[in-house]
Amino acid sequence: MQHDVTPAPRSTDLRPWTAPSAAELDSPNARSEHRRTTAVRRTRFRSRPWYPLYLLLVFLTSVWLFLRGDQWLADKLIWPANGAEFVPVSQKTTQARPDHRYLTVVIGGLNRKSGSYIAQALRPSLSRADTDIYSLVYGTSIVDVDLTAKFIDLLESTHPDVVNFYGSSMGGDVALNLASQLGRMQGQPMGDEGYLFPSVGTIFLDCTPLSTADVRQSSRTKADLLSAITEAIGTEGGAISRVAVEMLAQRHQWASGVFPFPGGSFRFDDFKYKLSEIVRDKISGTGISTQLVTDQYGVIRRFRADDVLSELPPGARLVYFRPEIGTDDNTINVARVQQQLEDAAATYDLDLTVFLITDGEHASAEKNATQYNQSIRVVYGLEP
């Protein structure tokens, strides 16, 4: 089949294309048209139904990347990752095993990396001829399974007959958790050497909370809320995040009102002092990591007083230290905790003793070491 192809008519007005000049592109009309076109495109994009979700995703991704980067730098440069360990403070029974051997475990509280300083302050009363003293040194986090395994390893290596616990502040919750686990295992075979799990001795609690409701300061709740947010997105951040959390939690010490809104005030000297204090005490190499602080508050959040106290052996001895004037403890409502412990002691057949520390503060064993040591000697029957 043959088709007739008619050629297109030639245009007599075709001219070669030439690029517009710079003056034409930068003319007022061109700039106005460019702005109009850009605005239309931007408006069309922002009017999409998924645009708010897009903004939220970008924001969360940016925060997550910042926190992960901050945490990675902190792990590499400031807080090398390591697990918890029990370190000896005083070993008195390594040469010859007496007939009855004791082990005392000292556990530090919030914002403390270990109980070693507390153990040294209480060494005159805790250290006896038949007692080994160990301090729990937190790693960069608190992992319950790891902590329990390390505790069992300690028992298998020291072979005590009785284990005493001393928990300062939140460390008392850790002590109670370990004591309740030991209470379930005591008398059962331990390891392959024929030893039995030891019994639970005296549990000393120094201004220990039993729940988050016992935490007095609202700033601590705010710090915990920020930590909960970072937990929810899967990372705890690092040094910069830690500084931000601590500064916001203690904002009343360097600002007043609702700063930066009208009526609020900002005190630069106080801000500078608080910032240097936090960097020195919380971010230095000897400080504690963001993850550890998160986990320390997590211990309080997860602690179930009724479940733990009910699993202690009947007749287990609890000793609670608190300031004589309850309001002198600015961190924990110790009067409320004392009432809970008294109720639990009556319910679960526990032996509770409460010592009121004159001029005491929150967990002030180092400051009021004389009163604490005297009280512990009374508990052990060494003083009337």
Could you outline the blueprint of secondary structure elements for this entry?
Elements: H1 22-25, H2 28-46, H3 51-77, E1 85-90, E2 102-107, H4 116-121, H5 123-126, E3 131-137, H6 144-158, E4 162-168, H7 171-185, E5 189-190, E6 195-196, E7 199-206, H8 218-232, H9 239-249, E8 255-256, E9 265-266, H10 268-283, H11 290-302, H12 305-310, E10 317-323, H13 334-348, E11 351-357, H14 369-379
Parallel strand pairs: 2-3, 2-4, 4-7, 7-10, 10-11
Antiparallel strand pairs: 1-3, 5-6, 8-9
Helix pairs in contact: 8-9, 9-10
Walk me through this protein's architecture.
This protein has 384 residues and is α/β, with parallel strands linked by helices. It folds into 2 domains: 85-211 and 303-379, Rossmann fold (3-Layer(aba) Sandwich); 214-300, no CATH class. It has 14 helices and 11 strands. The strands form 3 sheets. It has a 7-stranded mixed β-sheet with strand order 1-3-2-4-7-10-11, with helices on both faces. Strands 5-6 form a two-stranded antiparallel sheet. Strands 8-9 form a two-stranded antiparallel sheet. Helix 13 (334-348) links the parallel strand 10 (317-323) and strand 11 (351-357). Helix 8 (218-232) runs antiparallel to helix 9 (239-249) and helix 9 (239-249) packs across helix 10 (268-283). The chain is elongated and about 115 Å long.
